[in-house]
Amino acid sequence: MDSNPSSAETAGGSIYVSSAVTSAAKILVVGHFAVGKTTFIGSLSEITPLRTEEKMTQASLHVDDLRGVTDKTTTTVALDFGRLTLSDELVLYLFGTPGQQRFMQLWEDMARGALGALLLVDPGRLEETFPVIDLIESYGLEYAIAVNTFQADRVYAEAEVREALDLLPDTPVVYCDARDRQSSGHALIALVRHLLDRAA
Known about the structure:
The protein is α/β, with parallel strands linked by helices. The chain is built from five helices and nine strands.
């Protein structure tokens, strides 16, 4: 999963995709509010990620449910964007979606052209995942589940997660710490393998 700095050109502090790259894929990183999408993309991106975070205010307390969330002071209001070069030929563009219902109108544009979605879930708030699954399926996207464990009081077994979310048997379920590059990379690889299997 390591990027290949030697294949990139640096000019003016910006990193450009190597001219050898022949394929690119758009991947969505999705999930409910405060599940770690921004952190996940930040841990993987080989470029400084684009973030559209704003400070949360008193006005948002009536619309953003902070139960089970500690130290949350900012929220994504449009998207997160990062890039990861998997090989000399393939680069992934990672688009993180906002988690709140009031920003869901952005999904239509973001889902267009996406190869698939990695769905981050908080094991302590699994019930908040259902509206996101409905959106993913409404756009016909293949997806994998990544259980983000970095703030979890309890880690549920895969069978429990599958049953709680009513997943199809072939939907991958992996565990990750969104702060850790290697762990996040493992989750992304699970999605890519799933997409390749479905395309075969």
